[in-house]
Amino acid sequence: MSILLENHIVELLLERNDKAMSLLYEHYGDTLLGVAFKVVRNEELAQDVLQESFMKIWKNSDRYDPNKAKLFTWLFRIVRNTSIDKLRSVNTKSDKEIQIDVSDVYKLGTEGVNPELMDVQDNLDKLDDKYQIVLDALFFQGMTQQEASDELNIPLGTIKSRLKIGLRELRKIYGSVLLLTSMLYIF
Predict the structure, then answer these.
(1) Residue pair 121/140 in contact by the 8 Å Cβ criterion
(2) Per-residue 3-state assignment (H helix, E strand, C coil) for 160-183
(3) Axis-axis angle for helices 43-59, 71-98 (nearest 10)
(4) Residue 83 has what pLDDT?
(5) In the prediction, which pLDDT does 97 show?
(6) What is the pLDDT of residues 40-95, one digit of tens each?
(7) b/e burial code for range 10-42 (CB count within 10 A of at least 16 → b)
(8) Could you give the count of Cα atoms lying within 13 Å of 47 in the half-sphere of its Cβ?
(9) Class of domain 115-186
(10) CA–CA separation, 148 vs 157, rounded Å?
(11) What whole-number distance in Å separates Cα of residue 75 and Cα of residue 56?
(12) CA distances from 54 to 9, 50, 64, 119 (A)
């Protein structure tokens, strides 16, 4: 795809012009459907994911920043994350159907847990920027460590170190049990 066409699509998205969606579908639809299918391994689910993804793209078009990522990278992440969410949703639904009689599996002891303290993302601002960036990429943008390394242009070893130190710093804020519980809510 030419840079001119990509820039035109971005402009249309930012203007909330319907033409942007038809251009996106025309130029990226097949590839993004392939991304969804690779994750969910089901044609019908992949089509649902693509439709949901395009709705998210439209709703969040003002969040796209060409200085942070190419348009395809941004689209790819939305489709990939939506695919993962869909797969988890389907798996959770089937798990619940299987475990109808089991109500106490995986009960977490939450006595004394203050719900206001459970939002890890709100407490990231208490960490140094270098740790915030890595934790945000890994936990809230759904990147793997290698993807974060590539996207942030930071060596993989540094990503791993910053993850470890960032989690240690959050543990100081929450305490080890609270951090584990908080991280479970993320996934």
Answers:
(1) yes
(2) HHHHHHHHHHHHHHHCHHHHHHHH
(3) 130
(4) 93
(5) 52
(6) 999 999 999 999 999 999 999 999 888 888 899 999 999 999 999 998 888 766 55
(7) bebbeeeeeebbebbeebbeeebbebbbebbee
(8) 2
(9) mainly alpha
(10) 11
(11) 10
(12) 14, 6, 13, 28
| Distance of alpha carbon 165 from alpha carbon 49, whole angstroms | 35
pTM for this entry: 0.51
Q: Which tokens is 36 given? A: 């969804």
The DSSP symbol for 155 reads -
Distances in Å between the Cα of 149 and the Cα atoms of 15, 63, 136, 142, 181 are: 32, 22, 13, 13, 26
- Residue range 83-127, pLDDT digits in tens: 999 988 887 665 555 444 444 444 444 444 444 444 665 667 788
3-state secondary structure at position 82: helix
The letter for the amino acid at 98 is I
Between 59 and 180, the more confident residue is: 59
Q: Where are the domains of the chain?
A: 3-98, 115-186
111, 145 contact by CB (below 8 A)? no
> In CATH, what class is 3-98?
mainly alpha
